[in-house]
Design goal:
The protein is mainly β. The protein contains one helix and eight strands; from the N terminus they run αββββββββ. Strand 4 and strand 5 form a beta hairpin.
């Protein structure tokens, strides 16, 4: 990742909201993202897998590291591409109490695309999204999120919808 992207990540203010836990907590989550790619990218829309690690600071801010992997087909071919999407996100939770936690997210990342071991594209990205987490149990959260992902190098606009689960550690329930 280039230094400009790292500087932007450090400068980015995290958006996050409250939950039934007090103050700081860690969250480990996994989910299923569905990527809708810009026509310029030349990839078919596809779902994948996602893993995220997050830390919520004192209300209402948090930060997350996230990685997604998917294998979309290259448009109009039988060739499969391999896409890895790595992001550093800031979260701002829109309320401070309760079981339903709406949030906004702002992030920077790297979208890496390869075919059969050949690295085709490595593009820096910025993203913005809205989501909601809800407690299924004291330490288990469900998550639904929509996100716009903009490629800085090729000016592509992709969208992601994801559904996932998160396990909360620390904090009080």
């Amino acid at each position: 990742m280039k230094s400009s992207l790292l500087k932007l990540a450090i400068a980015a203010t995290a958006f996050a909201g409250a939950s039934t836990t007090n103050a700081s907590d860690f969250e480990v989550g996994f989910g299923v993202p569905y990527y809708s790619f810009d026509n310029k990218v030349g990839l078919e829309d596809e779902d994948g897998v996602n893993l995220n690690l997050g830390y919520r600071f004192d209300k209402p801010f948090g930060v997350e590291l996230s990685g997604s992997y998917l294998e979309p087909d290259v448009s109009d071919t039988d060739v499969t591409a391999y896409v890895k999407d790595f992001r550093l996100d800031g979260l701002w939770y829109l309320n401070n109490e309760g079981n339903v936690l709406p949030y906004t997210v702002l992030g920077v990342g790297l979208l890496d695309t390869s075919i059969k071991g050949l690295d085709l594209e490595e593009e820096e990205t910025v993203s913005f999204g809205l989501g909601v987490k809800t407690h299924l149990a004291s330490r288990l959260r469900a998550r639904l999120e929509g996100r716009w992902l903009h490629g800085l190098d090729n000016h592509t606009n992709n969208s992601i919808i994801s559904l996932g689960l998160g396990f909360v550690f620390g904090g009080e329930t």
